[in-house]
Amino acid sequence: MSRSVFNYGGIFLPAGLLLSTCLFFQCSKPDQATTAKYPIDKTKAAAHVVSAGEINDFKTTLAARIAALPQGRLASGTLHLTPSTYFPVTALRDLLHQPGVAGIHIYTGRQTDGSTTLFMVAADAGKKDIPGNIQGPAGSMELATARTLSSSFRTSTASVNNLNLPADELFNRDAIELLIQRPEVAGVRIYWGSTSGKGCMILLPVNAAGNDMHISLLREAAADTTGGDGLEKGTGDPTGGLITNP
């Protein structure tokens, strides 16, 4: 029985071996679609970038406002402010890899013990939440759980919200991508601060050791010469909120 062979550069190869070799090299090519980096628009990202000095002011102002609270009362219902919340970078990547993502929506929730928590969902260019993927500090979260947490927070601050804590804040994709673009960034820690009489969310990059990274994200966007090293100035009032509009 004869076998098919090909003459390749003076060397005769069995057809099966040649086909296997071609398939190997074809399958070994990197997937350009998955490895391509998002083209960050630094002008858009600059809308959220704040400097180390500004961040320190936000935190100092919050501490002073908490100390001055009447009888330490934070809200109309029992509410304990959790100083910061950590998210692994994989959680943000999971949200950003969805089609049509233009930003990340961060919601405030109230847990059963009265402490605050945060969770995230992607938003499209129309600022509408993209269903199907909600990320909490411990991982993926069900929509019903997210709505319960958000509703509990909004109820607890309905008549008294002495720190003017936001129920949600939206950050554009370019700013988030800028924050986590460095390979040494392992996660993002979100702190509470206060500016212009309102509570605010401050996003800082975190390394693998769990330490906040003080790096210049966008020096020209900073208010001083230290360089921007965090994100703030999120926008609220979600007109297309998946969480607040069942």
Name the helicity range.
25-40%
How large is the count of helical segments?
A: 7
Oligomerization status of the protein chains? single chain
What is the H/E string? EEHHHEHEHEEEEHEHEEE
Total number of β-strand segments? 12
Structural class: alpha+beta
- Uncertain runs are 1-9, 17-35, 220-227
Quick check: average pLDDT? 82
Number of domains: 2
Rounded to the nearest angstrom, the distance between the terminal CA atoms is: 70 Å
Report on the biggest sheet: 5 strands, antiparallel
Report Rg: 24 Å
Strand content: 25-35%
Question: What is the topology, as strand order, of the major beta sheet?
Answer: 8-7-6-5-9
Gross geometry? globular
Describe the structure using short key phrases.
single chain, 246 residues, alpha+beta, 5-stranded antiparallel β-sheet, 3-stranded antiparallel β-sheet, 12 strands, 27% helix, disordered N terminus
Describe this structure in words.
With 246 residues, the chain is of the alpha+beta class. It folds into two domains: 1-33, no CATH class; 37-231, no CATH class. Helix content is 27%, strand content 28%. It has seven helices and twelve strands. The chain starts with a strand and ends in a 15-residue tail after the last strand. The model is unreliable at 1-9, 17-35 and 220-227 (pLDDT under 50).
